[in-house]
Structures are given as structure tokens and as C-alpha cells.
């Protein structure tokens, strides 16, 4: 099993970088706000920036070893790199761009061109030139080009950040497909909780050039209010029931069941769910005659005031939920740590973040 | 066209083509050093390269005479080693034209090399290409418009070169008498006006043709390049 091990220090502009983490096959997100040094770390792994000291190895191959004086050039590292701005070759057709690693880099791959073209939906664009592609199409070509380099490690540097919301939504399914079907470590740099929730198996939170925390998407994103991001809850569970008529699915999370509106889920598959803190209401008693499909008994873990609003951390089974309510409601309901409450979540507010690969 | 006129035209073309053929590689190397190099003598190199553009052509011609003439140090060296002599020969006219056109060749190449996105070269290297391949598949094709623009400019300059040529290799019909030198010679003789006028017309046609050709090449390249630096 190819595993990427990174333990480096270096400089990025004005501040120091000092990170240590490993990335197993699957998607590891390097998550943090812009300017935290995530991209520099990625460049150091790719070999286009040089650390000051440390060690980078992948499955026993040494990319960089400051003490031993080893510094493999980028071409010899067996990586695929998807750049923020695409960086397609403007003078080459989409086909020549996609196959660049084959004809110019002498990489032979397991994947065929046809396979990648089908995965990314590029059939109609092969003979076009990058200048005539839309931003989303361009980024898909960039991803395909990296995949066809037969990478042992795939590095993606905010591949969606140059795109608008709609284009992002257009590409995310392709990225999910890539994430679910590659068996190599994928490092995905992003500052966007949405993308991270949808793609990442593991999250390395980076702050000012250092690793702040390493954990699952649920563990890291739940605390992301510190990074100025929207607070979300990430839950993982198994689909136990699908109502095809109404297009809803029921997912078992811990000991509870959560219903969501998503018709395309398969019974038995593992999914990751995402609920915005502002979409959760809190009641002190269970209610009848509500349209809200999910009522979960929870224990209040903490109440944190932020101006006029309050972030309430709730727990059920071993899962955490985050709710954002007004400070006034928090006071009127007398919420404090230990209170038993009911979290009310509309089925339409539960988003499917990711279908997880079933680990046999 | 008379036989003499055809001869003048062919000689001019030979001189200009030879000048371009021999200066394109050194010009590219110098342009590369100026665009990408990091060394202490860079501004000195820049100044030396620009020199033929700002010096009086006669001075450049005199310099060539001193260096490459039959008694000049470089002239003697080349004569002994390769049997090449420049004095009063078409090869001398080509050398003078090449030296005078050099700065015009270097500048557009340097500019186009500077405008090549280094990120694209970086991308190519992450895709497994080693640097000579990156150069041939990314850098050179992207710098091609500048290279061609330089060649067209340089060729035109070489065709019309006068001062340095006449100083270095004189004005010998059939050897060193290119278009501008022939026009000059005809204008010196009392009955030459009509013939001079014909040659002047010819050089105007040549100049317009060169401009149209270079525009056409530029357009073709742009179309092939898909018009954007994505």
C-alpha cells in the first residue's frame, strides 16, 4: 500500500511552514483558510518548491530528504498535479493535453484515454483548444491530464476555486467519481467546507503553516467556526431504507435514524450527511403535527454566545450536532450543558455530502 | 527584369538568408539568457547586443573590418581554421547584415520568452517531461510567434543593410552589391535614375510582401494556438 509521509519545515513568503502528516489511499484534505501555507506544502510534495529540511516519502520511495541531500525533480516523483488555474497548454488540443504525460513524459498508465474521457465527460471536446473551453471544462481536462500521468499520488490545489458556484456544482460529481475510484493517496487543498465535506476521507487542518488538527471530516469541520467558515455538522451512517415514491431515504446514524430527501441512494450504502447549523431548531419537548421529519433527542454539550446568536453543541449516541439559534432563544429555553433537548431537522435540510466507499 | 536586376535580387536574398540562418541560434541563446538568465553581466550583455542598433553603421562596419578583415585577428583565425574569408565577398556582406539585424532578432524573441507562463513549464515537468522535452513541447511552440516576428524583422533589416556593409566589404557588383548598394551606385551615375527607380519599386514590393507574409504567419499561429493562454 502506497502511503505518503510528509514531515517538513520550510518557508512560504513571510512565515514558517512546519507540518507532519501521512496520507493513505483515499482523499486527504489539506484544509485551512487561504494563506495558511496549504498550497506551499503541496508544491513541496510535488517538488516545485523546496523545503528547508525534513523528509517526504511515498510508499518507500524518498522524494525529499534534507539530511541525505535527496531532492527528486518533479518529473521523477510519479505525481499528478491539478493546478488552481488549470494550466492547460494553450497551443495543444484537448486530446494532446490529456495525453501529454504519455507522449512527452513517457508515462504509461493503467487507465486508457477512453476511460478517463468517459469518467470526466470530455467526449465532445477532444479536438478543441483550451482557449475555447469554459472554465469548468478546462478544469475537467486538467484533472484528466493528471489522471493520465499514471500518478502514484494525486495532488489537487484548490481545483475549484477559480470557478463560480454553478461550475463548481458541475465538477464536484466528477471529483467524487475520481475520489471514489482511485486507490492512491489524493491530497486535496481547499478552504471550502462544502468541498471538503463532499470529498475528504480525512482532513488535515492547517493554520499558519502548522497542522492544527488531523481527523475525520466530522471532527474537523464541526469546529470550523474558528476559521470563519459556516458551522456544519457532519454525520456518517448507513442507508437502511429508501422510499422511491417520495424520493426519501433513511440513514442510521449511531442509534438514531435520520430521514433526508435524496432519491438516488442505494440501500446498504454508506453515506456522509451534512447539516448547516442554522438549519437545526431546538425544542425542549417532542412535537406532533410537524412537517419536520427528524426529531432527535440530544444532550446539550455546550452553549457558546457569539453576539446575538448562540452556537449550541449537541450530542446523540457518539455523534455531534451543531445548531445555531438566537441568543434570545437560548436564554428563553434555558439551554446549558447537560440539558436534554430535541433537535429538529427538516429532511430537505439534510444534504448528502458523499457516498462512502464500502470497506469490505 | 533585366539579368543584372535578377542577379542583384538573388544576391540580396542569399545575403539576407545566410545572415538569418547563422544568427538565429545565437540570437535565441542570447534572448534566452536575457529573459531567463540570472548572472551579473546581464546588463552588459544587453548593452552589447543593442550596440549595432545605436552605433553609426559605419562604425560597426569599421569594427567588423578591424576584427574580421583579412588582417584582423578573427578574420585570420577563421581563414586558417575553416578557409572562410570575408573581405570583399558576399559572406562578408552576410556577416555585416547579420550583426546589424541581431538586436532586432533578439528583442521579439526575448519578449515572447518572457511572456511564456513558467507555470506551464512547471505543469509539464509534473507530467513527467524532462527539461529538453519541456522546452521543445511547451516553451518553443509558445515562443514561436516572437521567433518568427524576429526573423521577418531581421530579414528585412538584412535586405536593406547599407552602412556597415559598404564600409566592411565595399560595393562590388556580383559579390557585395545588394539591393540598397545597387540603388546607391545607380544614383551616383548620371544615367542611372530610371534603373534606380525600377530597383526602388522592386524593394517597395518586397517590403510590402514581407509585411503581408508576417501578418499571415502571425494569424495562422494565433488560430492554431486557440487564441488564449489558458
Brief overview:
The complex is a heterodimer of chains A (360) and B (230). Chain A is α+β, with helices and mostly antiparallel strands and 360 residues long. Chain A has nine helices and 21 strands.
Lay out the secondary structure.
The complex is a heterodimer of chains A (360) and B (230).
Chain A: E1 4-12, E2 15-23, E3 26-31, H1 38-46, E4 53-58, E5 61-65, E6 70-71, E7 79-82, H2 94-98, H3 100-103, H4 113-120, H5 135-147, E8 153-157, H6 165-181, E9 185-190, H7 193-199, E10 202-207, E11 210-215, H8 217-221, E12 232-243, E13 248-253, E14 256-261, E15 270-276, E16 280-283, E17 294-306, E18 309-316, E19 319-326, H9 327-332, E20 340-345, E21 351-356
Parallel strand pairs in A: 3-9, 3-10, 7-8, 8-9
Antiparallel strand pairs in A: 1-2, 1-4, 4-5, 5-6, 10-11, 12-13, 12-15, 13-14, 15-21, 16-20, 17-18, 17-20, 18-19
Chain B: H1 3-36, H2 42-54, H3 57-68, H4 73-82, H5 90-115, H6 118-126, H7 131-160, H8 163-169, H9 179-188, H10 193-224
Helix pairs in contact in B: 1-5, 1-7, 2-5, 3-8, 5-7, 5-8, 6-7, 7-10, 9-10
Amino acid at each position: 500500500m502506497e502511503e505518503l509521509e510528509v514531515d517538513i519545515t520550510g518557508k512560504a513568503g513571510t512565515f514558517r511552514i512546519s507540518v507532519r502528516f501521512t496520507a493513505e489511499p483515499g482523499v486527504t484534505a489539506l484544509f485551512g483558510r487561504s494563506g495558511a501555507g496549504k498550497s506551499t506544502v503541496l508544491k513541496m510534495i510535488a517538488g516545485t518548491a523546496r523545503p528547508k529540511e525534513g523528509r517526504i516519502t511515498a510508499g518507500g520511495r524518498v522524494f525529499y530528504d534534507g539530511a541525505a541531500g535527496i531532492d527528486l525533480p518533479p518529473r521523477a516523483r510519479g505525481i499528478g498535479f491539478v493546478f488552481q488555474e488549470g494550466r492547460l497548454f494553450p497551443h495543444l488540443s484537448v486530446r494532446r493535453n490529456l495525453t501529454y504525460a504519455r507522449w512527452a513524459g513517457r508515462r504509461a498508465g493503467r487507465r486508457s484515454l477512453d476511460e478517463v474521457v468517459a469518467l470526466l465527460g470530455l467526449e465532445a471536446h477532444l479536438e478543441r483548444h483550451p482557449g475555447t473551453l469554459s472554465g469548468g471544462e478546462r478544469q475537467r481536462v486538467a484533472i484528466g491530464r493528471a489522471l493520465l500521468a499514471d500518478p502514484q499520488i494525486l495532488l489537487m490545489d484548490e481545483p475549484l476555486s477559480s470557478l463560480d458556484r454553478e461550475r463548481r456544482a458541475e465538477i464536484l460529481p466528477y471529483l467524487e467519481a475520481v475520489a471514489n475510484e482511485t486507490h492512491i493517496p489524493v491530497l486535496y487543498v481547499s478552504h471550502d467546507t462544502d468541498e471538503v465535506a463532499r470529498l475528504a476521507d480525512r482532513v488535515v487542518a492547517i493554520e499558519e503553516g502548522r497542522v492544527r488538527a488531523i481527523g475525520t471530516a466530522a471532527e474537523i469541520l464541526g469546529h470550523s467556526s474558528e476559521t470563519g467558515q459556516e458551522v456544519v455538522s457532519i454525520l456518517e451512517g448507513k442507508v437502511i431504507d429508501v422510499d422511491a415514491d417520495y424520493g426519501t431515504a433513511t440513514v442510521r446514524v449511531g442509534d438514531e435514524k435520520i430521514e433526508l430527501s435524496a432519491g438516488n441512494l442505494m440501500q446498504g450504502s454508506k453515506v456522509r450527511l451534512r447539516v448547516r447549523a442554522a438549519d437545526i431548531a431546538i425544542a425542549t419537548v417532542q412535537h406532533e403535527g410537524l412537517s419536520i421529519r427528524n426529531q432527535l433527542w440530544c444532550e446539550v454539550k455546550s452553549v457558546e454566545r457569539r453576539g446575538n446568536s448562540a452556537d449550541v453543541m449537541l450530542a446523540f449516541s457518539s455523534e455531534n450536532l451543531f445548531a445555531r439559534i438566537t441568543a434570545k432563544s437560548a436564554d428563553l429555553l434555558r439551554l446549558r450543558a447537560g440539558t436534554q433537548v430535541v433537535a429538529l431537522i427538516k429532511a430537505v435540510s439534510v444534504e448528502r455530502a458523499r457516498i462512502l466507499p464500502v470497506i469490505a | 527584369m533585366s539579368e543584372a536586376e535578377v542577379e542583384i535580387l538573388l544576391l540580396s536574398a542569399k545575403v539576407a538568408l545566410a545572415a538569418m540562418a547563422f544568427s538565429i541560434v545565437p540570437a535565441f541563446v542570447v534572448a534566452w539568457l536575457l529573459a531567463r538568465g540570472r548572472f551579473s553581466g546581464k546588463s552588459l550583455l544587453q548593452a552589447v547586443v543593442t550596440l549595432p542598433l545605436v552605433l553609426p553603421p559605419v562604425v560597426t562596419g569599421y569594427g567588423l573590418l578591424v576584427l574580421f578583415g583579412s588582417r584582423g585577428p578573427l578574420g585570420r583565425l577563421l581563414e586558417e581554421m575553416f578557409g572562410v574569408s570575408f573581405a570583399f565577398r558576399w559572406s562578408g556582406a552576410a556577416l555585416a547584415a547579420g550583426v546589424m539585424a541581431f538586436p532586432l532578432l533578439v528583442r521579439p524573441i526575448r519578449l515572447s520568452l518572457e511572456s511564456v507562463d513558467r507555470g506551464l513549464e512547471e505543469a509539464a515537468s509534473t507530467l513527467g517531461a524532462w527539461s529538453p522535452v519541456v522546452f521543445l513541447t511547451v516553451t518553443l511552440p509558445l515562443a514561436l510567434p516572437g521567433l518568427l516576428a524576429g526573423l521577418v524583422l531581421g530579414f528585412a533589416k538584412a535586405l536593406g543593410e547599407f552602412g556597415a556593409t559598404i564600409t566592411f566589404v565595399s560595393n562590388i557588383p556580383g559579390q557585395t552589391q545588394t539591393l540598397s548598394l545597387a540603388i546607391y551606385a545607380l544614383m551616383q551615375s548620371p544615367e542611372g535614375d530610371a534603373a534606380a527607380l525600377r530597383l526602388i519599386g522592386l524593394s517597395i514590393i518586397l517590403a510590402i510582401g514581407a509585411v503581408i507574409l508576417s501578418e499571415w504567419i502571425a494569424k495562422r499561429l494565433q488560430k492554431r494556438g486557440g487564441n488564449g493562454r489558458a
